[in-house]
Amino acid sequence: MRLSTFLALFRPALPLILGLSLGCSLSLLMVSWTQGDTDDPCGDELAKGGLFLGRRDAQRGGRDGAGEEDFQPRIVPYHKDPNKPHKKVLRTRYIHTELGIRERLLAGVLTSRATLSTLAVAVNRTVAHHFHRTFFFTGLRSPKVPHGMTVIAHGDDRPVWLMYETVRHLHQHYGSEYDWFLLAQDDTYMQAGRLSELVGHLSAGQDLYMGRAEEFIGGEEKARYCHGGYGYLLSRSLLARLQPHLDTCRNDILSVRPDEWLGRCIIDYLGLSCMEVHQV
Ligand SMILES: *[C@@H]1O[C@H](CO)[C@@H](O)[C@H](O)[C@H]1NC(C)=O
Hints:
It is found in: Membrane. The protein has 280 residues and is an alpha/beta fold.
């Protein structure tokens, strides 16, 4: 009588208890497979089958050399030398700077005072959300900066100067924060989604100057520049290598078109031509 009441009380919890005990025994089984000795035939069989490849590799690594002996723990005492001045650890402002983690893509859009409130705003509304950050570069200061847009004014309206200042600015302020820089005009038609996807597949750390390659007018040479109207990508390392030459380029290269000027500078000083396709 009492037993049956007890059981009736117990019944709802029965599946739970069963499940728990089954889970426990299964996990115990797993422990003996994955943590057992090497001579454990079961573990070895599985390892041969390739199931625990990682573990075998780890063991092999440990077997050669010092790993053979039993590891003896040792206490390393911490002495603070009172004669030495206390070294202050300099922390960067953001943890990702300290760890060297960079974002993928920053977009720089070259705009002008006349089109800032029209084309640039359209860029901001249609494609800017595909990039981690978008900056708008313009020559002269604009009386009215559209809401929610970062506009960087350089104070000189000549297109080549704007390009020079833009590239310099990108390198100086964001050269260590981003892997890729997209330079485009405010009237550039962009498939921004595809672009940011492409950038996600490119490996960082290579010099890359990629976009729509165009020949120089009247030029016999094979080297091409990336046409600004289509936008182009510059890699972080290219930007870093280009930086020391920018002033020379600004003074020596005569061009009225900013994209040609930059192309000339990259071709002459880094020996790189605009690429349309790239093998990842
Ligand atoms: C530009 O984009 C930002 C972010 O999407 C938005 O907050 C802002 O209102 C936009 N500005 C204009 C002028 O459309």
